[in-house]
């Protein structure tokens, strides 16, 4: 299908310094867990987006020197020739697809604890990091300033050698150049501190030096947080923000704007629970619309909708659409817009699972919507290409149309199976996502420090995308409202049966903290509920509610948000040090805490229930069980253990003779039905099985390439040899 | 009890399509074929009647070219006992009266107790074939049936007809009869993989006009209309999107209002 002319503007080239971007789709710097030490992952993840039409793809933050070391978080590095060689792989791959390669030169100062290198970071003043634990920088005198600026220059020279087209001096997220600019960090009284010009001096000088070194060949970019969101204590867009842009406009080829910093990064990488699409606009748009720059501007805001992209450019907010998460969710977003295939776009849901892996420090990225993110090299998976399965003539029955079942059926369909039946007991496709997306609360008011409570509605895109794709697959039939018995499964006529029947919440208070039920816990009673029952609405919920939160992610707190938003008095009890630990990693925690405070929710950490009675819950402090507490409540929500609904799988497996007689060759179990897990992992589980359904033992994941040092001499071929022969590996 | 269900394989259009060179039809390359949505409900009604009776035969009958075989197999997979497909090149572009004439010949041969049709097809949307068939067979008939209760003792069907404005007409009709069935009357079953495989072993007869004792001339006499041409209507220009600052947009709106109102 041809491109809709209204999107033509997104495909107009634009000049940035000596380089040309072929269109307005720009993958801004973002973490993936690859760095310079997993060059295959780096090159193939970025390359996938270039193949999908992005005009430029950038590295994550790239350390210019061992003094800028964020271990265990994974940054890229450009310290030496080895790094040049490894990052050149990324540049080559991007250039193959006609995209520009960008590198974000980073010096973290006190935000980088140097746990691997044991070096001492330098900073403008001895102000400890507000992000890391107890890390102070060494004060930079003039010699130190020259030394560090030379690090930028040397790094830029290495970057050019590697083949990068766009070279950033990176100050956003409150890294070193921003630390000089902002009085929040800079207490100096020399020519690098005090007045605006003094504070801007380090950054401007660094830009000039980098420009002198490589500016003829490369576009010089700068990532700048136009507003630190700390008011007059730091940079405000209307004051030093636009002033800085004007001050350095002549030495920059491309501006890349953000807001906020790394300490509360969730204000920039805003989760959909609290921030809408294009949420940075009120700040970042002031630069161009106020005529403070003559240079091209790229910016972000979890922009997923092509019409929003057009409006952003036409309104003069940005010239170039920046994206991190939308490019992870769909590397082929530009191509799909170009080909008029809007309903094939896999929209980011703003869950920040991708970011959570970087925050944890170490693991490779993941993506709820795109199970191939991070797997492009190590498993050879391509989000848009699927090799026909060797056993595709077999009929497949997938039982359960939740995240795992939908994903598995979809990939099997794309692998040309002759007949896939996805059968769901309820009247709706989507499984647990249908009720989870109704959690949280939304009140439409921006009264939560720049954001607002929006609920989890965008998570429903998990279902929207798969429903559309399944509808397009002629070889996949979706049957709703059909709860199959074991007998019906046995007689279905499928050679391959995949059980994806999900899980349920324990009703007796069984929990991960004590591994035991709780006396008096019984969610079959009408005044005790499991989280799904809260959404289902069949049980009346009294005014005062206690939510027992033992699962450390969003479930308990989202129930609390929903009930408090509806006017209940809510207590959350958790045995953990704090509620919803995983939401620290998804950057949702600060806004969650603001919301819970605003809603008057009472949080009781390090507390466990020992007995539940009508009207009162008996609790104790986990460090001193003799320290008791009572909560007088009307209803109790038990957000504790989940238990797989795998009965049908067990029954099928129990009678091998019968399976054989009915022609069933294999029975698999995936998703929550195998083991309760996060949605991102259920979708991955379903995806992996479908990709490897024609391998010798599909229930066991095939080996993937581990990018590690092999003793002795080794080439790329040695790494690839680690992969067994698998039918569905893209040509790497 | 024998029930004949007259079904149609209907064409679904892609977003993009072209017409044939003589503009008489959509270019078949852009068509996808499926069992008519209404016929899923009428087939289900027939299967439920057979199950309630504990015996009987359900025959799926269609007028259609090779493309239509899939829809017939679909009916067999769901539980029809036998399928009959009638085709002749002369049937290309046949209107409801011509199709009804062919169906009438086949139904007469079957001599069923009940004939079920869908209210309409989703592609041609004439809503005429079922009732025309009843007329040609001189059968008692009820159109737009949304509920069906059959009493074998009296061979009488009590049916509800759907009227406008939420009104419902209650009728009883003695078999043999023809009913046109409305969507939503039941929950159509689907076919398991085994049933789909086994459908290929059920009897499926393919016949031409001659087999039914009909000729091209009979069709020409029967036809009530002939499609002369199809055309794709022009699309409008679409909307003008206003952008820029609030002040800029307000200015443009004021401009437009002045332009349009003079």
Compose a concise summary of this entry.
With 732 residues, chain A is α/β, with parallel strands linked by helices.
Describe this structure as you would to a colleague.
- The complex is a heterodimer of chains A (732) and B (262).
- By secondary structure, chain A is an alpha/beta fold.
- Chain A is 30% helix and 17% strand.
- Chain A contains 23 helices and 28 strands.
- In chain A, β11 (254-259), α7 and β12 (297-299) form a beta-alpha-beta unit.
- Chain A is globular.
- The mean pLDDT of chain A is 96.
- Chain B is of the alpha/beta class.
- Chain B has a single domain (2-258), classed as 3-Layer(aba) Sandwich (Rossmann fold).
- Chain B contains 7 helices and 11 strands.
- A 9-stranded mixed beta sheet of chain B has the order 9-8-7-10-6-1-4-5-11, with helices on both faces. A two-stranded antiparallel sheet of chain B has the order 2-3.
- In chain B, β8 and β9 form a beta hairpin.
- Chain B starts with a strand and ends with a helix.
- The chains are: A alpha/beta (732), B alpha/beta (262).
- The interface between A and B is medium-sized, with 22 and 16 residues.
